[in-house]
Amino acid sequence: MALSRRDCRLRILLSKAGMTQAELSRKTGYSPQQISNWVNDREKMSYEAAATVAYVLECHMEELYELVWT
User: Fold this and answer.
1) Kind and range of the H or E element at 61?
2) Which residue among 1, 49, 67, 68 is buried most deeply as judged by most CB within 10 Å?
3) DSSP 58
């Protein structure tokens, strides 16, 4: 068995934090297009990006994606 990332939960976490994608972009240094790609599941975050986003959103990296055992 292995743990797999499914849907990105970034949209939910941004809403909980009262933060826009543009604000997250400014605070992390990632482009608005990159943030949009993650929010819309067009790309998965790298480990470093997930750590940065989790730090800014004050959450755990594990919260950024729906995780399932496969």
Assistant:
1) none
2) 49
3) T
Model pLDDT for residues 1-26, shown as the tens digit of each residue:
899 999 999 999 999 999 999 999 99
**pTM of the shown model:** 0.93
Of 44, 68, 57, which is closest to residue 12 (Cα–Cα)? 57
At residue 52, the pLDDT reads: 98
CB 26 within 8 A of CB 59: no
Q: What pLDDT, on a 0 to 100 scale, did the predictor assign at position 25?
A: 98
Question: Tokens 């997930």 belong to which residue?
Answer: 50
The answer for residues whose C-beta is within 8 angstroms of residue 44's C-beta and 6 or more apart is: 5, 8, 38, 65
Q: How many CB atoms lie within 10 A of CB 4?
A: 11
**Mean pLDDT, residues 25-40 taken together:** 98
